C-alpha cells in the first residue's frame, strides 16, 4: 500500500485473512453472516441472514451444543466465547474446521443473547505427513472429548462421596492437570471442606470452617455462583490480599475456583490448583466448568444415596425382628436378610412375644412388596399382632383381629395400592412342647425329627391377612417332641434362585437332612447352613450386608426342644426313637387326601421295602376316603414309626367320630366300594378296629422285613379275630 492511500475496509482485511463476520441474535433466532462467513459455512459467498435452524444444520451437533454452553459462561465471566466448529454439508460430510471468536452480551429485558464475532478457517495438515500424525496425537479437541466422556462415566458410577472425591482426584485433564483439588461445601453461613486431594490434611485447617463473608476465592464463588480464575501468584495477591498468606506456602502458580451448581443452587465450590502457570483459555475454562458441573451432580447423587442409606439403616434398626429374652426349655435361632437394591427393606418379619399365661408366641409374616410402604405396613402389623397376643387372645383370634386391622388400614377409598400379608402364629408351651398354630396363607412349618427325618407339618389355615376382615383361622395342635426342631420361614428362603415352592422345599429338606449337628451351637450353625445353601456365605448377624443382592426378603426362625440336658443336635437319645405325624382331613377337604399320602411317603423316606411304602400309602388313602364317604365326621390320621432301622414298625391309625363299626362286604366285580378291609387283610401285617367313647379308630401295622414278628401276617381284629366290615 502506497503512502497516502486510504486504509482498506475491515471487511476487505478480514476477507484477505479468510475470516468472516457474523452476528447472532438469540431473541430473534436469526444469524447474519457476511460473504466470507457464508462461504466458510458452505453457502454461496454472499451476505445473508439465516435462521437458527438453518445455521444449526451446517454445524456438527456436538459443536452446536458446545456453543450454547460456552455463551452463558463467557457472559458470566466477561470473557470471549471461543470454540472450534466442524462445518458439515447436506450429506453430513465435514467440509472444514473453523474457529469462532465472539463477544456475547445479555439483554435481561428481552432475555436474549447478542453475539458479534468472527469465523476463521483452521488449516489441517495434509493426511499422511508428520504434521498430520502430530496433529492426530495432539488434537486437544479429541483428547478433551474423550476425557469428558471418561470423567462423566466414572463420576456417574461413583456411589459415595468418598468415591466421587477419589475419582475427582484421579482426573487427568488433557494438556493441563491440577495437582491439588479441594471440594468445599456450604453449611449454614460457613464454608467447610468436604474432601481434598494433593494436600496434607493438617495444612487445610484454616480453610475448613471459614465464614462465607471471608475475602477468599472459594467463599466468593459460594456466595455469587461465579467462577474465579487466578493465573499467577501476583493476581491472587492483588485480588485477595487478606487470604493470600494462607495460600502462599502451598507454592502453586495458578488457581481455578468453580461453583458447584445443581438445579440453579450453588452447593459449594471446587478448587483446582496448578504448580505451573495456566492462562485459562476459553477452551480450558470450558473443560473445568464441565467437570465442575459433573462433580456437583455426582456429589448430589452421592449425598442423596448416603442419606437414603442412613434412612434405611435407621429404619432397619427400628424395625429389626427381635427374639427378646431366652426361653427356658427351648432354643431359638433366627435370621433376617432384606432384599437387595432399593431401600433394602421389605415386608418380612418375625417376632417372639412373651404371653401372660407363661407361654410364648412366635409370629412370622410377609407383607406384599419390597418397598417403604411394605416396610411401614409390616411395622404396623407387627405392633398390632404383639398387642393382640399380649392381651391373651388365642392364635385364631389374634390372626382374625390382625386381618381386620390390616384390611382397615389398606382398604381406604383414597388408596389404590391394596396390600395383604401372609402370617403364621405359633403359641408354644416350653414345658410340654405343645404348639398351637394358626396360619394365614403362609408356608407350612417344617419339623426335623430326632433321627434327621424332615417333614412339612400340614396345618389348617385361612386367607392371607387383609383380604377378608371376617376370615376364620382354625388352629392346629401338636407336640414338639424332645430333640425335634421346628422351622418357620418366608417364601424368600424357599423360592430364591428360580425355585418354586416344591423344588425349593426339596432343596431345604436336603440341607436339613444332611446338616451335621455339633454340640455347641447346633441351631445357629443350622440357620447359617440354610441361608448359605440359598445365597452363599452369610454373616452371623441378624441382618445381612447391605451390598448383598437378594431376590426376596428372607425370614427364618428355628425352635428346638432339647433332649433334656444334652441340648439340640444330640446324637444320644434318652428314649426310644419315635417318628410321628398327625394330620386331620375335614369333610370339606377331600383334596387333603393326596397331602396325607405325600406326608406318609415323607415319613417313610428311608423305609427298607419300597413295596411296603406303596402298600401303606394305598391303605391310608383307602381308610381316610372311607371316613369321608361313609360318615359325617372328619378323619384324624396318626402315623408312627418306632424302633431302630432294620427292625422298625409302622403303625397308622385313622380316627373318626362315627358310631358305625366297619364290617366285611363281598363286592361284586363291578362294585366301586367294599374292598377296604380286604386290602387291609391282604397288605397289613396286623390291623384292627378299636371302638372309642365317641367314634372309633381303625389301625394297621407294617414291619420292616428283618423285624417282622412271627405270625405277623395274621390280621387280628379287636377281639383276636379277623374284623369284618367294609372300608
TrEMBL record:
EC number: 3.1.3.16
Domain PPM-type phosphatase: 327-561
Keyword Kinase: yes
Molecular-function GO terms, alphabetical: ATP binding; kinase activity; metal ion binding; protein serine/threonine phosphatase activity
Role noted for this protein: Primarily acts as an independent SigF regulator that is sensitive to the osmosensory signal, mediating the cross talk of PknD with the SigF regulon. Possesses both phosphatase and kinase activities. The kinase domain functions as a classic anti-sigma factor-like kinase to phosphorylate the anti-anti-sigma factor domain at the canonical regulatory site, and the phosphatase domain antagonizes this activity.
UniProt-listed InterPro entries: Bact_Sigma-Reg, GAF, GAF-like_dom_sf, HATPase_C_sf, HATPase_dom, PAS-like_dom_sf, PPM-type-like_dom_sf, PPM-type_phosphatase-like_dom
PANTHER family in alphabetical order: STAGE II SPORULATION PROTEIN E, STAGE II SPORULATION PROTEIN E-RELATED
Enzyme class: hydrolase
Catalytic reaction equation(s): O-phospho-L-seryl-[protein] + H2O = L-seryl-[protein] + phosphate
Protein name: protein-serine/threonine phosphatase
Annotated signal sequence range: none
Amino acid at each position: 500500500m502506497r503512502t497516502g492511500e486510504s486504509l482498506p475496509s475491515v471487511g476487505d482485511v478480514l476477507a484477505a485473512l479468510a475470516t468472516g463476520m457474523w452476528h447472532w441474535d438469540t431473541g430473534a433466532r436469526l444469524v447474519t453472516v457476511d460473504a466470507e462467513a457464508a462461504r466458510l459455512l458452505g453457502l454461496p459467498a454472499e451476505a445473508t441472514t439465516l435462521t437458527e435452524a438453518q445455521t444449526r444444520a451446517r454445524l456438527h451437533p456436538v459443536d452446536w451444543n458446545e456453543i450454547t454452553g460456552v455463551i452463558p459462561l463467557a457472559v458470566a465471566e466477561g470473557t470471549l466465547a471461543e470454540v472450534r466448529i466442524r462445518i458439515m454439508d447436506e450429506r453430513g460430510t465435514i467440509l472444514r474446521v473453523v474457529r469462532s471468536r465472539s463477544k456475547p452480551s445479555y439483554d435481561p429485558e428481552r432475555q436474549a443473547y447478542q453475539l458479534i464475532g468472527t469465523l476463521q478457517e483452521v488449516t489441517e495438515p495434509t493426511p499422511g505427513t508428520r504434521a498430520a500424525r502430530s496433529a492426530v496425537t495432539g488434537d486437544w479437541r479429541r483428547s478433551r472429548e474423550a476425557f469428558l466422556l471418561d470423567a462423566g462415566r466414572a463420576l456417574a458410577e461413583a456411589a459415595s462421596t468418598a468415591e466421587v472425591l477419589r475419582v475427582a482426584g484421579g482426573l487427568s485433564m488433557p494438556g493441563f492437570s491440577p495437582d491439588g483439588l479441594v471440594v468445599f461445601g456450604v453449611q449454614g453461613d460457613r464454608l467447610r471442606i468436604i474432601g481434598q486431594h494433593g494436600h496434607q490434611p493438617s495444612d487445610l485447617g484454616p480453610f475448613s470452617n471459614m465464614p462465607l463473608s471471608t475475602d477468599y476465592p472459594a467463599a466468593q464463588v459460594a456466595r455469587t455462583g461465579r467462577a474465579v480464575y487466578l493465573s499467577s501468584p501476583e493476581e491472587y495477591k492483588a485480588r485477595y490480599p487478606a487470604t493470600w498468606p494462607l495460600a502462599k506456602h502451598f507454592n502453586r502458580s495458578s488457581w481455578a475456583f468453580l461453583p458447584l451448581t445443581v438445579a440453579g443452587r450453588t452447593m459449594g465450590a471446587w478448587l483446582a490448583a496448578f504448580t505451573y502457570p495456566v492462562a485459562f483459555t476459553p477452551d480450558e475454562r470450558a473443560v473445568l466448568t464441565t467437570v465442575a458441573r459433573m462433580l456437583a451432580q455426582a456429589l448430589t447423587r452421592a449425598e442423596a444415596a448416603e442419606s437414603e442409606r442412613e434412612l434405611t439403616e435407621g429404619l432397619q434398626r427400628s424395625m429389626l425382628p427381635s427374639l427378646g429374652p431366652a426361653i427356658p426349655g427351648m432354643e431359638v435361632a433366627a435370621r433376617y436378610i432384606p432384599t437387595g437394591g432399593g431401600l433394602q427393606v421389605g415386608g418380612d418379619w418375625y417376632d417372639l412375644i412373651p404371653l401372660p399365661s407363661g407361654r410364648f408366641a412366635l409370629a412370622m409374616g410377609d407383607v406384599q412388596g419390597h418397598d417403604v410402604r411394605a416396610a411401614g405396613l409390616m411395622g404396623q402389623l407387627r405392633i398390632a399382632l404383639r398387642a393382640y397376643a399380649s392381651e391373651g387372645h388365642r392364635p385364631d383370634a389374634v390372626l382374625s383381629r390382625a386381618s381386620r386391622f390390616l384390611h382397615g388400614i389398606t382398604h381406604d377409598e383414597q388408596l389404590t395400592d391394596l396390600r395383604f400379608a401372609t402370617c403364621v402364629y405359633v403359641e408354644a408351651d416350653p414345658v410340654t412342647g405343645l404348639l398351637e398354630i394358626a396360619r394365614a396363607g403362609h408356608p407350612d412349618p417344617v419339623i426335623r425329627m430326632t433321627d434327621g427325618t424332615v417333614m412339612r407339618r400340614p396345618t389348617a389355615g385361612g386367607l392371607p391377612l387383609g383380604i377378608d376382615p371376617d376370615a376364620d383361622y382354625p388352629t392346629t395342635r401338636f407336640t414338639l417332641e424332645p430333640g425335634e426342631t421346628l422351622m418357620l420361614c418366608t417364601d424368600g428362603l424357599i423360592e430364591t434362585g428360580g425355585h418354586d415352592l416344591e423344588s425349593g422345599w426339596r432343596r431345604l429338606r436336603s440341607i436339613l437332612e444332611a446338616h451335621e449337628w455339633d454340640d455347641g451351637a447346633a441351631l445357629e450353625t443350622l440357620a447359617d447352613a440354610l441361608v448359605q445353601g440359598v445365597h452363599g456365605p452369610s454373616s452371623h448377624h441378624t441382618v445381612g450386608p447391605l451390598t448383598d443382592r437378594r431376590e426376596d426378603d428372607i425370614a427364618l426362625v428355628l425352635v428346638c426342644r432339647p433332649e433334656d440336658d444334652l441340648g439340640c443336635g444330640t446324637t444320644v437319645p434318652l428314649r426310644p426313637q419315635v417318628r410321628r405325624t398327625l394330620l386331620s382331613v375335614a369333610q370339606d377337604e377331600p383334596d387333603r387326601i393326596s397331602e396325607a399320602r405325600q406326608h406318609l411317603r415323607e415319613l417313610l423316606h428311608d423305609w427298607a421295602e419300597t413295596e411296603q411304602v406303596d402298600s401303606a400309602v394305598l391303605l391310608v388313602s383307602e381308610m381316610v376316603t372311607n371316613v369321608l364317604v361313609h360318615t359325617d365326621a372328619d378323619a384324624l390320621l396318626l402315623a408312627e414309626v418306632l424302633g431302630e432301622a432294620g427292625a422298625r414298625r409302622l403303625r397308622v391309625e385313622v380316627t373318626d367320630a362315627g358310631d358305625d363299626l366297619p364290617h366285611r362286604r363281598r363286592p361284586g366285580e363291578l362294585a366301586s366300594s367294599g374292598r377296604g378291609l380286604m386290602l387291609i387283610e391282604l397288605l397289613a401285617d396286623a390291623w384292627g378296629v378299636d371302638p372309642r367313647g365317641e367314634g372309633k379308630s381303625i389301625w394297621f401295622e407294617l414291619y420292616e422285613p428283618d423285624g417282622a414278628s412271627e405270625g405277623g401276617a395274621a390280621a387280628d381284629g379287636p377281639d383276636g379275630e379277623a374284623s369284618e366290615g367294609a372300608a
